[in-house]
Amino acid sequence: MTQSTHLVGQVDTEIAEFLASREPILVAVADELSSFTDFSRDLLSGGKRFRARFCIAGWQATSSGAHSAEERAVITLAAALEIFHAAALVHDDIIDNSDTRRGMPAAHIRFAALHRDEHFAGAAGAFGRASAILHGDLLLGWSDELVDAALALLPDQDNARSTRAEFNRMRTEVTVGQYLDILEENAWPTVPDADTIRRAERVMTFKSAKYSVEAPLALGALIGGASAAQVDSLRRFGLPLGLAFQLRDDVLGVFGDATITGKPAGDDLREGKRTVLVALARQGMPHSQRGAFDDALGRGDLDAAAVADLQRQIEFSGALESTERSISSYTADALNALHAADLDPHAVAELEELAQLLTKRSF
């Protein structure tokens, strides 16, 4: 077992112990609140732990690793990132009306099922959405508790302050990035066709790329007191890799196998996601075809045949091929930046492996 794998295992333990420590607090208020920790455990038991792994790798790439307090702090910070991500997923599924997450019912669906099972009054769907919003808010608060716990372990408070500032910036950027995503799904009829790709790229930069790869790398480096040059080199690696990661996610959201991704095939089409892939597809279509394509996109009742038809249109437009080229180009840019950086060689090997995993995955 590599050191990084061992540390990711410790992140899992940190998350489990933190949730266990919060359950008595909730149950002391009311027994019914155990649903929050039960649903949190299920949500956090899955996932790829990419953000935790990048946080750990950022620390390993720039730190001697000799300080046990730093190691403990980076594990706790990585756990905070995973809980923050879980909060974002809960809210994202409400926004997108997604019924599933990681092969399980989404949080708002589970709360709605609780409503029906217990024969509560009112509408199950409304109860489910309201409860899941609060669940996401609770997870956000818990992630911040873990950030505070991580920073309290650091002997160097300058490192603590710079790490907190980076976390705060990440939190702001991903939140407004989510808003930009909602904006594009609604404002697209008012946007000139020439601007759609640029605006879709803006969404994927702030909603995903910086938050999924660049910020976790920077956070891990900052917690160990990395130099400005080292943090900058990790950012030059992390941003293009994050863009490649999101483009792969966009491809899987349209063409992915539901048995592998844990989400229904073509879910992004039903949700009306205005991704770079979709923007490229519209650009590659005859103008006469765009109207029918736009009418179908975002219809929640699309059946398998309708999804397959949209998939064919996207592929025929050349958008899929163009997106695959962009993924390769962004990945190459990231690896070139990584190889030019002054970083620990073992961590560089780990980051190379992560880059391949992110961009060639089928899940």
UniProtKB/TrEMBL annotation:
One Pfam family from the record: polyprenyl_synt
UniProt keyword Transferase, yes or no: yes
UniProt superkingdom: Bacteria
Needed cofactors: Mg(2+)
UniProt-listed SUPFAM superfamilies: Terpenoid synthases
Keywords annotated in UniProt: Magnesium, Metal-binding, Transferase
Identification of the protein by name: Geranylgeranyl pyrophosphate synthase
